[in-house]
Automatic annotation (TrEMBL):
It comes from Geomonas anaerohicana. Residues 23-277 form the EAL domain. This is EAL domain-containing protein.
Length: 279
């Protein structure tokens, strides 16, 4: 028993060392990724289920690493958050999205919105509205082409401050959505005060929506409540016809998920835009 205990202990510390080393390695190469501008955006379509019309894309960041290939955000966003590198990455993400929106407009495509994810640290950057407005001007992007996604938990951490910042962004004409809705602890009284246009039902509620009565109840209550407050609802992670049918039946306005399309590299997104955005 003693030997087993020691082995377990050794294994544990070895794992910790490995984790710490891996972590440090990610941190170092992430630093050079920022310097060398190794980030790209993939674009996931958002459709109106009633008409099949493309309404917009969510921009999702990927790290094109020379050593590790395409790295997904779950692997590096947490490190970027902790180290503060997220501010620079987030700035670059916003700039790429604005450039893309302006390019598609200039190429004559019907206008679609590009939704960009904001991190908690960005939301608390004192000069966020000025910075974003500066980037939009530089890129020649109109605020109507851009939407920002902030998570429910991020906004509820400091609700009063969040309401003020979101109000400033909204006044600039940028669209706003609350992401991962249902996973935090919004109080209804606060939600009423949030100047956002959309709620995004989290994928975890969509996953079993046609078999789990709890998830079904949460999703349909969210849709009804959002509509009462004059907000639209986006469902994310929609993979099947059955999920789509349930959501449409309950009045969900916008659908995003593998059922329609996975996130697309920019050339593929442009082809999708050409095929689906009837003006
Ligand atoms: P999220 O904002 O909730 O984004 C949705 C995630 O679900 C994306 O993962 C997307 O690829 C995935 N997804 C979409 N449809 C489906 C589906 O039908 N089934 C399944 N199983 N998954 C689906 P991704 O791209 O790996 O991004 C993960 C998370 O990383 C995002 O979650 C977001 O929190 C964060 N993230 C991505 N890009 C950015 C960014 O530019 N800035 C910041 N701060 N965070 C980002
Ligand atoms: Ca999102
Ligand atoms: Ca989510
Ligand atoms: Ca359940």
């Amino acid at each position: 028993a003693k030997a087993a205990g020691r082995n377990t202990y050794q294994m544990f510390t070895k794992e910790m060392h490995t984790a710490a080393r891996q972590r440090l390695a990610i941190e170092n190469s992430l630093r050079s990724a920022v310097t060398n501008d190794e980030f790209v955006l993939h674009y996931q379509p958002q459709l109106d289920p009633a008409t099949g019309k493309l309404l917009g894309f969510e921009a999702l960041v990927r790290w094109q690493s020379p050593d590790n290939g395409l790295v997904y955000p779950d692997r590096f966003i947490p490190v970027a958050e902790e180290t503060g590198m997220i501010l620079e990455i987030g700035r670059r993400v916003f700039e790429m999205a604005c450039q893309q929106a302006a390019r598609w407009r200039d190429a004559g495509y019907p206008s679609v919105r590009i939704a960009v994810n904001l991190s908690a640290r960005q939301l608390r950057q004192p000069d966020l509205p000025e910075m974003l407005s500066g980037i939009m001007k530089e890129c020649g992007a109109d605020p109507e082409m851009i939407e920002l996604e902030v998570t429910e938990s991020m906004t509820m951490e400091r609700p009063v401050e969040s309401i003020r910042i979101l109000g400033a962004l909204k006044a600039m004409g940028i669209g706003l959505a609350i992401d991962d809705f249902g996973t935090g602890y919004s109080s209804l009284s606060y939600l009423k005060l949030f100047p956002v246009d959309k709620l995004k039902i989290d994928r975890s509620f969509v996953k079993d929506i046609e078999v789990d009565p709890d998830d079904a109840a949460i999703a349909s209550a969210t849709i009804a409540m959002a509509h009462t407050l004059g907000k639209k609802v986006v469902a994310e992670g929609v993979e099947s016809q059955a999920q789509l049918d349930f959501l449409v039946q309950h009045g969900c306005d916008i659908i995003q998920g593998y059922f329609y399309s996975k996130p697309l590299a920019v050339e593929e997104a442009e082809q999708y835009l050409a095929r689906h955005a009837q003006s």
